[in-house]
Amino acid sequence: MTRMNSFFFAILLFAGVVNVNAQSAQDSIYYRLYVKNASAQMIEEAPPAASFVAYLNGDESKIITNESPRWDPAGDATIDGNGTIGLELGNFVDPYFASGDDVSVRFTDYAGGLQGTLTQSVTLPLYPLPPTLTAEAKTVPERPADVRLEIDDATGARTVSWSQVAGETYDVYRRVLSDTLEDGRARKLYERVAQDLSADNHTDATIDTAEQYAYVVLATNGDGVTGAPSDEVWLETVEIANLTAEPLPNNVKLSWSPVGAVNPPIVGYNIYRSTTPGEFSVEPTAYHSLDTHYVDTRLSLNTDYYYRVTGRTINDQEIAVSSDVSATTLASANGYHKYANLKVLVVFYRNTDRGTISPSGVAQVKESIAAANEFYWRNSAMRFNVDVEYHEFTDLMVIENPDDKWNSMFATAGHVADLGVKNTQYDAIFRVTPAIGGFWSYGSRNLSPPLPGPERNTGFSQVQWPIGSGVSYQGDLPSVEGAIAWTYFHEMQHAFDAIYGDNGSTEWYHGDNPDLFPVPCGEHWDFQAKMMRAFTVDGLPGYLTLNEDWGDMYQAMDADNDGFPDADARVPIDEARFGSSASAADTDGDGLSDRDECVAGTFSGSDPNNADTDGDGVPDGADAHPRYPGSFYAPAFTPTIDGVIEEGWRQVVGDAIFANTNFNEPKVFACHDDDALYIAVETPRVADVEIFLDIDADGWWWGSNNTKIKYDPNTKTLDELWTHDASDSARAYGAATEGLWKGGVRDDDGRYVSYFGRRIFYPADVQVASTNENDRYWTEIRISKNAKAGLDLVDGEEIGMRVLFSSVGYSSALWATVFDNYSFETIELGEPVTSVENAAETIDEYRLEQNYPNPFNPTTTIRFQTPDAGAATLAIYNSIGERVRTLVDGRLAAGAHEATWDGTTDAGVRAPSGVYFYSLVAESGFRSVKKMILLK
After folding, report:
1. Global pTM value
2. Of 299, 636, 705, 892, which one has the greatest count of Cβ atoms within 10 A?
3. Backbone phi, then psi, for 262, in 5-degree steps?
């Protein structure tokens, strides 16, 4: 009933008096019209398809539009989309509307190609029935496009420009921004300042420099038909307040107050730098987002720098400007930590014709990306940081060809450009979309155009939502979705290493080619961790070779010079959040520095405030496994394989290091005899037991004789048994056979069995038994001696092992692990070595012995043997994969050898205490790596 009354009765909306611009008084007079077509049907279009202008007494020098406000903010829209329009006649001033004035309303319907004008003498009180405006078919000029406004800094003159269309003339109108209603809303009464222009611009010099103006442009075609007003353009020249500059040795940190709502809106900031006061180049030093913090990097020590910040619009107009500030960089970089920083824009396509991403999905992606970025930071030893900003596209996106990945990349660049992003503003773009298939990367490409800005390649990678991958993130953040974290890390690494390649630096190794990586490593995350730790150039962290065309070289306070920022909110973890002291390089004095405590594991570190993190009685600095206690030996003992773990088994480790469910104190045991290797586990809940063995103990996941055993204690079935063959003949067969990997073949593949006529391990070679009581499970496994696999079962033999508990409680999503997942821990057959025997022996195999003494100070001896003459390298590496010392590098005779390390680097500098690795690599392809501990 209320809406029908509003259709049929025009009323005075306000009984009171409304002040107009605080100069005189005027009643609210809301004049309503019906709009119909020539068939007398209501025109039910709404803006922007429909619009109107109105003027008094035939004088078009002053107009109001459908954008001019109703005085009743709660009233219907001026064009309600139901066939009715209305205008507030009280918006006319100088002269005011007076009873008996002629009111002309010109209504345009672009959707229907209709226009009509109604002129009526309006007396008060208003007629009870609204009059009807009839619109007829006309060729109506489009609204003028690309309307822009510039201000002459010297004279203050405003120049309005637009895209000119042949045969059209133009009228330019302006309004004063200070002309507002009593409640502060803009009146939007426009006054014509130019008429019948045949140009594409007009300079308005008749201005008051103390005022701000907004402009609209109307086009008239050769038939004399005038179209609707253009979008309004105005420049509110505002000050960017509170710009400050904090100097560091080679950085200056800028911050300022955000600019509020202006029209057109600011889409980002431009940063200007100079070494001369007041003299700035035309082009900005950097394009920045709407974040009000910026760090200028790669600066000289003890140098004066001057800065100015401006706010830019989508059309590159700078409509906000700061005062200039200066800063003098510090004279020394001592006490500061330097690291590379790349900026990444992550974009979500939330709503496409091929699927959507929910808000919870967005949150899950963000959390997983944060975990992956912490992985980058931790495993680069705090030398590489990824700074991420997010944008969500929520409008419906229709994807014409989802298989056209190449052009879809440029389409995204165009969408990002529509946000006001410049080409060098971000170093890489990461896209999450339901529409484009797979997870992939184009490395880095020139995205300009459509991305405007300086010429330079930009990284580009994507994943499809929902994301599918079998790789889990088994770190200390169990809520992280492993597939997201992994695919983001893996694909963005393509972009990052391409950036380093564009940069002229050494590219990183990559997960697509593990067989080319020279450092022994496990699978997936372990490979990526070691790859990041091994990225060095001329013995220095390779991340710092990034030149000024990409990214930044940030500095952060590091008072104790331990290579670990004290407090830096830009990075995933610093000493403040890790809990270590900023004034002591080794907070708990256990011989392991705070930085090395943080990077002690693949996913997390040890405790910087506990000298014995795992409580095994060995200080962290002297403990090869500071995060979990264990005795990594398998003594001689023959158990009964009946699912009962009797006395005589050696417990290797006794707790889960990571789990995404309640899984308290799983235990792993090992022993051996002349005929078999024995492994047993005890679990607090039912779970599949997955044992991975690196029988050669060479640290390589896809090396020869790597074996997986998977047993289900609930069904008492051996679900998986396979061994990877990476021998020369298996590699050759894999490379020559479609669908097989050139790095080797699993022996459970039917093609392998058919070609080689055998397996390495048969199910009969593995005996398993299990028991359970009160939801606690015990499993014993016997693995027969196997010459083909190199399982010789002699004292001193080393075997790599990884243990995973999957499908915990019958749920495929739940897991636990006792070591860092995807990597191996070495188990030695026999008891711990307490002395070195010098007995002669026949040398018929390669062998790298454990150094002695270990831990050591100041020297240790490393013994090794080579059955054949040939080139060999024996080198020392620190905990982040940097080569510290080369002990042997040349041709050796067959026989026994030894080398002594005195704890110094190749440069003759004393190495700090901590965990080190020594690696023997022979010309034959033999590789072996062992750990040792240097104490001071």
Report:
1. 0.72
2. 705
3. -135, 165
